[in-house]
Inverse folding.
């Protein structure tokens, strides 16, 4: 995929995330992966776009999928799916197993729902460390086959490090030609310090087409696999 504006209908993007989906499945051979977060070092690396495309791929594979917009400052997921978040964060945080679906926004894709937590608040650390947030995430993971959490860049906000350990693992989006190695290393180390499992990395906006190049990052029990999204 070239480095221009790209839509969720882009065939290259959708093909690439199918492979990402398969890799996530492989990472969960012993214990199925049912919840992930996407993060990156910097702003604009492609997290939200890839999160949405992956959500489409998961739902197309008949998994009941929820994508949670956990970027309180710059929520984009509802826009991508042309749906509108109608609920205040404080209200959504009170959701229970019985009424969670009342807060999930239907998309045009069967099996795919959006939970929009974005409301431009600044005390995200307080929210993400709360028991209510924990309970909400657990409920979502219980009610859906696959939960994707979109987060802000770790180089700017700590949010992803707070959420990642509550999920089955993190995928780091690296934007080719933009992120420097040190900022990616910092992202990895922040996730490791938080005791998050790093499932892999996606090399976004690579110029190479249909590459089958994989990079394995290995430290302790972590093994990171990199898939290129063109
Ligand atoms: N592979 C790609 N090819 C072309 N354009 C892309 C690609 N990935 C992302 N973009 C574009 O780059 C811009 C930033 O993408 P996106 O919003 O997904 O990044 P982000 O990491 O979520 O940003 P933020 O940190 O602000 O949340 C968008 O305009 C998106 O369409
Ligand atoms: Mg984003």
């Amino acid at each position: 995929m070239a480095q221009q504006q790209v839509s969720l209908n882009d065939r290259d993007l959708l093909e690439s995330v199918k492979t990402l989906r398969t890799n996530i499945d492989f990472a969960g051979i012993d214990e199925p992966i049912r919840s992930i977060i996407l993060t990156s070092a910097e702003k604009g690396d492609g997290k939200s776009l890839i999160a949405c495309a992956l959500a489409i791929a998961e739902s197309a594979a008949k998994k009941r999928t929820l994508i949670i917009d956990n970027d309180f400052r710059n929520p984009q997921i509802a826009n991508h799916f042309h749906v509108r978040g109608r609920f205040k964060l404080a209200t959504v945080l009170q959701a229970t197993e019985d009424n969670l679906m009342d807060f999930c926004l239907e998309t045009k894709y069967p099996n795919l729902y959006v939970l929009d937590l974005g409301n431009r608040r600044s005390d995200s650390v307080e929210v993400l460390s709360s028991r209510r947030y924990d309970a909400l995430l657990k409920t979502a993971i219980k009610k859906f086959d696959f939960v994707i959490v979109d987060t802000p860049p770790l180089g700017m906000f700590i949010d992803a490090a707070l959420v990642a350990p509550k999920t089955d693992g993190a995928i780091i989006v690296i934007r080719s030609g933009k992120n420097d190695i040190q900022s990616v290393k910092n992202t990895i180390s922040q996730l490791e310090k938080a005791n998050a499992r790093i499932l892999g990395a996606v090399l976004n906006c690579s110029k190479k087409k249909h590459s089958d190049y994989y990079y394995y990052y290995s430290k302790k029990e972590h093994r990171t696999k990199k898939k290129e999204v063109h």
